[in-house]
Write a structure and sequence with these properties.
Blueprint lengths: L4 H18 L13 H4 L13 E10 L5 H14 L6 E10 L2 E10 L4 H8 L4 E11 L1 H25 L6 H33 L1 E8 L2 H7 L2 H7 L1 H48 L6
Parallel strand pairs: 1-5
Antiparallel strand pairs: 1-4, 2-3, 3-5
Helix pairs in contact: 5-6, 8-9
């Protein structure tokens, strides 16, 4: 039965759907790095003036391997130059384990300087994690203030005794010695109070930088490790050969003479057996 033209028209939608199905779906868009400008606001919380919380932040980020150590130096230099926020560099760690660079910098600074420093550390990279922890120092602050108040009151009493004119020399020496001890305790507690106040007024920030996992795996491949460990492997093998030679040489003194002695004895025994097996010359 011949096909009519309208049959081909009916098949056109089906052919069009098949052609669309054969088209390859477009690849998903690559994930862009997380913008630090919008995700690293970790120290913008309003804090009351009488707060006794000491904040510590830990930030981990991925940056390209070719500029990781330079970025670490840039963060350190920015902290040194940030006098407005009283930034102090506490610790800088650089590592190049297996040819894969990494680093960590720890600073203490005013809360207003935390976010700009974090953005500088992760510029052009990817934010991995942000952790914030706060220690409540209310009890240590109260204890320090109470002890200082008590010592101040005691110092005033001792100072009053020192001004009396009816004190004997030995009493004057005793009061003077006690006053010196009280002043030492006051100085120590004042230093402790200043340290607690600094922990409250400033934040501890630790920024850890690492290369992306793909780059790390590529740089720490087996071939790369073999190339980097060529000389160490060669020297280790050479040491094994030297140790084997040193251990084998004493045996040569015994093995070679013994082998020659056994061979001589074998030859002598063979000659004696051949001479015994020959018939007498008169037969």
């Amino acid at each position: 039965m011949p096909l009519r033209p309208w049959c081909f028209l009916a098949l056109l939608p089906v052919l069009a759907l098949c052609g669309c199905a054969r088209k390859q779906a477009p690849p998903p868009p690559a994930s862009a790095p997380v913008e630090f400008a919008s995700t690293s606001r970790i120290a913008t919380v309003e804090r009351p003036a009488d707060s006794t919380l000491a904040y510590a932040h830990q930030v981990a980020a991925e940056v390209p391997a070719d500029g990781l150590l330079q970025r670490l130096d840039a963060v350190r230099a920015a902290c040194v130059a940030d006098r407005a926020n009283a930034c102090t560099v506490l610790d800088v760690v650089r590592s190049n384990d297996g040819g894969v660079p990494s680093g960590r910098v720890t600073v203490r600074l005013a809360p207003a300087g935390v976010d700009p420093l974090v953005r500088l550390a992760g510029q052009g990279g990817k934010l991995l994690s942000v952790k914030t922890h706060a220690d409540d120092l209310a009890q240590p602050v109260q204890d320090t203030e109470r002890q200082l108040a008590q010592l101040d009151s005691y110092r005033e009493k001792l100072t009053g005794f020192m001004q009396r004119r009816d004190l004997a020399v030995d009493q004057l020496l005793t009061v003077s010695k006690e006053l010196a001890g009280v002043q030492t305790q006051i100085d120590d507690l004042s230093t402790k109070r200043a340290t607690l106040r600094r922990r409250i007024d400033t934040d501890l920030l630790t920024v850890s930088l690492q290369v992306p996992r793909v780059e790390a795996e590529a740089q720490s491949s087996r071939v790369g490790e073999a190339v980097r460990g060529f000389f160490s492997t060669m020297t280790s093998s050479l040491a094994d050969v030297i140790e084997f030679t040193a251990a084998f040489l004493p045996w040569l003194v015994i093995v070679i003479p013994g082998f020659l002695g056994i061979r001589w004895l074998w030859n002598r025994t063979s000659q004696w057996l051949r001479s015994r097996s020959r018939p007498p010359a008169g037969n």
